[in-house]
Write the C-alpha cells for this entry.
Amino acid sequence: MKYYLWTIGCQYNEWDSARLGYLLQKLGLIESKQEDADIIIVLACSVRQTAIDRIFGKIKSWPDKKVLISGCVLEKDRAKFAAKNIEIFESGDIKHLFEILSEHFDNRFEHFKLSEFYSLLSEQNTQSMYIPITIGCNNFCSYCAVPYTRGREKSRAMDEVVNDAKTLIKKGQKEIMLLGQNVNSYNAGRNESGIINGGKTKSDFALLLEKLNDLPGDFKISFTSNHPKDMTDDIIEAVARLPKVIKQIHLPLQSGSDKILKAMNRPYTKKQYLDIVNKIKTAEVPIKITTDVIVGFPGETEKDFQETVEVFKKVGYSIAYVNKYSPRAGTAAHKLGDPIAWSEKKRRWKILDEIANKK
C-alpha cells in the first residue's frame, strides 16, 4: 500500500508530516508520488484562504484516491470536505487515523497494538529538527485562524522537551528548532518562576533555553515564532549569552501603525516595538532581527503604510516576510472586507521587500 503526504503551511505542519510519514512506514506503507498513491494525506493550513482553495483544486485531480485531511482546518471547511466524502483526523489523534486505515484498506491495522503505535510517537525522524513546545494560541489576532483550528495555547512539560532534544542530539542533529505560535509565552506549569541573581524572576522560556544550552553535544538552538507582547529582557539576554542559541530573534511587526495594530488586535504600539528592538540591538553580542508584516490590511491608508516603512528603515531587518492581506472567513477581520486593491498591495509589498530583502 502506497501513500503520499502533502504538507502546506508552517513548521508545525512539517513536524507533524515528518512524524506521520515515519509512523506510516513503520506500519509497512510505502511513500510514493501522488499519482501512484492509494492514500493521500494533506496537512492543511488555514491561515490564508488560498491554501484551502489549492487543496480543493487538487482534490478534483484525485477522483480515485482516498484523501484524508489533518493540520489546521476551520469548521466551515470541515463541512465542505465532508460533503466530498473526505475524512479529517486531528493532529496526533492516532486512534482515529488507525480506525480509518483499518476501515478502508486492511484490517491488519486493527491488529497492530495501539500502545505500540503510540510508543513510536516518541521516536523522532532523524531528519526532523523541530520540537514543538506549545500548541495552539491565545492571542486571537483579528486576521488569523489558528486559535480556531489549533485551539487555545498549551505548553508541554519542560522535561518532555528536554528529553526530545536529547534524542535528537543523540541521533546527530546539529540544529534544534523550538516551535510554537508564541514560544516566548511558554509556561511549563510550575507554581513559581525560577530565581536568578538579585531575586528577579525568569521566564519559563528563558529557563528552557538554559537547560537545552547545558546539554552536552555539538548543536545549535533556534526558535519561532515570538510575540512582541511577551518578549522579555531575560529572553533577549539568554539569546545573547548562551553559546548554543543562534543569535537571531524573529519579531513579527505586522504593521508600524498603531491604528492598524489595534485593528489587528496586536496589543503593542510602534514605540513599544521599537523599544524591544533597541534592547536587542544593544545586547552584548550582535543579534539579527527578522519579521513578518502584512500590507493592505483593511483601513491601511498611505500614512499608515509609511509608518511601517519608517519602522523597516529604523530596524534594518536581516529578513522580512512581507504578506499581502487576504481575507479569511472565520476570522474577526473578515467582516472588514477587502477594500484595498490587489495592485496597491503589490506596490506596498515591493517597497518593503526592497528595503529589507534586496540589500
Notes: Residues 247-359 form a domain with the Transcription Regulator spoIIAA fold (CATH 3.30.750.200). The chain has a mean pLDDT of 87. The CA atoms of residues 66 and 104 lie 8 Å apart.
